[in-house]
Amino acid sequence: MGRQRKPAEQTTASLYRGADGSWHARVTMGRRPDGTTERKHLQHRTKAALREAVREVERSRDTGRYVWTADDLTLNAWLEHWLGTVLPMTARWKTLSTYRSQMRNHVADSLGGWRLSEIQPEHLEAHYRRMVEAGHSTHTIRAVHRVLCSALNEAVRRRRLASNPALIARPPRAVQVEVDPLTVPESRRVIAAAQHTLNPPRWSMALSLGLRQGEALGLLWSDVDLDGGVLRIRRAVQRHTWDHGCAAADGQPGCGRKRGAECEQRTGGGLQLVEPKTKASRRTVVLPAPLVEELRAHRARVNRRRLSAGADWDATHDLVFPAAAGGLLDPSRDHTEWKALLTASGTRDMRLHDARHTAATLLLLQGVDIRTVMAIMGWTEMATAQRYTHAVDELRRRAAMQMGALLWEDSAMPQVVE
Q: What are the CA-CA distances from residue 98 to residues 92, 111, 250 (Å)?
């Protein structure tokens, strides 16, 4: 049996001469996403030119190359649809929150009014130059570029756009930032000073295992096997933005407050335990023996704190590193304690994330192979390890020394005979 033919009204084009003297055509292209029929309008000075244009449009329709541009959405409209309808099906809350912030702060006002079909690579490159002139970092600009690439790729996939201009546009070249970790003596001073803090093993763990801040604060005692000397990373602490819980009036919150955190009926925000950021982040890490003993003593201290607090203790989660009265420890408070710890130990100032860099560097300098380091750190890409060039260079020097000792030990260098 042959393929069933489409009705004539779905395949034929109507041609007519308008009052303006030009020739016009209405070509049926199919159904729009809302179910209505889309007819594309063409206009030419001569009937022959119009017929050729109609044939080209019909070929693109019949071969599936036609791009649906009935309304030719603005970039802002497409981003709102992508971030509000498409991406939430697969992306994590933190990813969505970050993408929305980047598009709102760096794209909406400057590029958002452009139609998708109008955006050219040069427009994006000009925007990136303006961001550079405004003092934005290369890291921020490249992050904006990556989000635009993803958003416009989805527009191409859904036939809202013929091609993605962000794939052609060139963002500023990435600047490699050299990792400047703590030295071994500095790390030891920090661990010694940490014994006077609320959760001493928190900082020993940061410098020896390189746990991310959210991973460390999300540890439960059920994740730690002190007898086996291992811990399992299963979750992380994350702060979510509060949403208004009040009824909206004319698109504005009914409570009259701008921020969801100020709404008396706020919902969905605050500190929460979430899944780790990647599959590789869900990992099992072997504990150094001294850290196991630290954790044993720390668990006894936490139990005493809980008994002393009584009913005032927040026992929602059995946390390894709870706040002063139990409950999840605020990442901002954790960061403040890190800064105070650096001061107390007489150590130079650095970011909390640099404790993770320190752990990775110390592992590499001890000759731990890169695949094992990646497993311990929860890295997913080998490119991440390339930031630790200083450690890799030291390993190369050691390898050269070992090879020299192996082949030339206790022997004189061979003499060259002419």
A: 10, 18, 27
